[in-house]
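Annotators were shown the component list below and the corresponding predicted structure, then asked to write short factual statements about the assembly.
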Amino acid sequence: MTTREDPLYQRDYQRAYRKAHPERKAFHNRRYNRKHRKRLKAKYDEWRKANPAAAYGYSRAWVLRNPEKGRAYQAVIRALRNGRLTRGCCEVCQSSDVHAHHDDYSKPLAVRWVCAAHHKDIHRKEILL
Ligand SMILES: [Zn+2]
Ligand SMILES: [Zn+2]
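Structure shown to annotators:
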């Protein structure tokens, strides 16, 4: 067997390569995530269903790390439920599949409705509304 066909050699080589080029790994991961977003999301949803306690723990940990954001988020959910807030369309592209974006988390009901893509742009500061 040549080293090229040896799976152990391949594994070590890839490991060393990833170690030597961490930025490349991030790049590939991003590209992979973009390409397989739907499948990854489905997988995650499945995992969440199978491990509700763990998933709850994760979101709980996030809220503990981001208490103000967590509160703002909860306030939006509540307000949508009791009718104080109605979901709008994306301010940029009019998509109806929207997130609530907070310019200021201390004003939990002052939200802007934006789709996932434009929401990401806002946080990357690529667009300003
Ligand atoms: Zn949009
Ligand atoms: Zn936001």
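Statements collected:
1. Residues 79 and 85 are 5 Å apart (CA to CA).
2. The mean pLDDT is 89.
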